[in-house]
Amino acid sequence: MDLRQSQKDSEERDTIVAAQQGDRAAFKTLYDRYRDRVYNLIFYSLGDELGAEDVLQIIFVKIYRGLPGFRFEASLATWIYRITLNECLNQQRGRSPQPIPFEALLGSDEEMDIGAAADLEHAEGERREIIHRAVMELSPKLRAVVSLKYLEGLSYEEIASVLQCSQGTVASRLNRALRNLEARLRPLRRLL
Asked: How far apart are CA 18 and CA 1, in angstroms?
């Protein structure tokens, strides 16, 4: 571990300890550091932009209340991701899944003609939306590994810790997710 990483880890530990002792500014620092990552994980777990904001608040209340019991047995990020995924599972149990029709991935004829899109940003936005919808069609377990690996950049070991499973299970789920995505997106290859 290099000196910079060691310093960063020490600073985070100091911030956590201060937050555990009730320092609101320290907790705000942690909130600012993890907010976007937690939001992305919620969004890709639930697929609901408005609901993600509500769940984000619920999760940070749970983090705030649970922080005094955090014992540094795992990294703070791992602990936060575990809380996030557990709350997302709780939220999913409370609602019936909304299937996304395959036609929504394909779009209308004019949407499929990217050559007609004068604006490259618009075309890129559509590509992101197509991929997002395909990811949202995955099961929650497969979405979780895809989100943690490709959005958060976690290693297999870190994902296994968050999901409380083996690295082999992580690899298997990721492999299934990628095969599933490849099959769903194959007909759309020319758009992507």
From this structure: 24
